[in-house]
């Protein structure tokens, strides 16, 4: 169950990061509220996952999901630049996440 909490926490990290972008510096109330609620929920689920998973594994996977998710959302939704170097960097993050999962005993 810890891995489910962790994946959902990572997805919520992408949600709150996107909502923060839409909040325009917290000047728009609905996206600002989504940001805060998403942050709290993401941190809570990360905390629950850390009851079982090692700190290094949980935190690395959480930030990796957030980083790759935000990267993809930026490209697919916000029209951000796609370059070979950015795609390779995203692929390396995913490879690191897979290795971290495979190296975890939990």
From TrEMBL:
The keyword Repeat does not apply. This is Guanidinium exporter. It is found in: Cell membrane. Its main location: membrane. InterPro entries: EmrE-like (IPR037185), Small_drug/metabolite_transptr (IPR000390), Small_multidrug_res (IPR045324). Keywords: Cell membrane, Membrane, Transmembrane, Transmembrane helix, Transport. It is a multi-pass membrane protein. Belongs to the drug/metabolite transporter (DMT) superfamily. Small multidrug resistance (SMR) (TC 2.A.7.1) family. Gdx/SugE subfamily. It comes from the Bacteria. It comes from Novosphingobium soli. SUPFAM superfamilies: Multidrug resistance efflux transporter EmrE (SSF103481). The chain crosses the membrane at residues 27-46, 58-78, 84-102. Pfam families: Multi_Drug_Res (PF00893).
């Amino acid at each position: 169950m810890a891995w489910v909490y962790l994946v959902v926490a990572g997805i919520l990290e992408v949600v709150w990061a996107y909502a923060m972008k839409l909040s325009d510096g917290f000047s728009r109330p609905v996206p600002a509220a989504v940001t805060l609620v998403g942050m709290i929920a993401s941190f809570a689920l990360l905390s629950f996952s850390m009851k079982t998973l090692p700190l290094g594994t949980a935190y690395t996977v959480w930030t990796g999901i957030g980083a790759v998710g935000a990267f993809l959302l930026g490209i697919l939704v916000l029209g951000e630049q796609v370059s070979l170097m950015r795609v390779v960097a995203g692929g390396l993050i995913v490879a690191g996440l897979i290795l971290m999962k495979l190296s975890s005993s939990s």
